[in-house]
Specification:
There is one protein chain. The longest helix has 13 residues. By secondary structure, the protein is an alpha+beta fold. The protein has a single domain, classed as Alpha-Beta Plaits (2-Layer Sandwich). The chain is built from two helices and four strands.
Length: 74
């Protein structure tokens, strides 16, 4: 398993609910969570795939489609 982290423009629980349908349909995600108390509003994703590139693209696309900015961080 691998943990991926993304800086986002999410602001509140309503924002998290807006990305939920996109995040929940991405295959290969074991779990995901948002830290709204962090200044960078970090989305942390645990993936069970050996090659996370496709998941990264899907996460970035889904969050952007929901109307928010997203940037992968280390």
């Amino acid at each position: 398993m691998q943990t991926l982290r993304f800086k986002t423009s999410l602001k509140c629980g309503g924002c998290v609910n807006a990305i939920k349908p996109y995040m929940d349909k991405i295959k290969g995600i074991e779990s995901w969570d948002v830290d709204l108390s962090s200044p960078d509003k970090i989305v942390e994703v645990v993936t069970n795939t050996a090659s996370p590139e496709e998941i990264i693209k899907a996460i970035e696309k889904g969050i952007a489609e929901a109307g928010y900015t997203v940037e992968q961080i280390n």
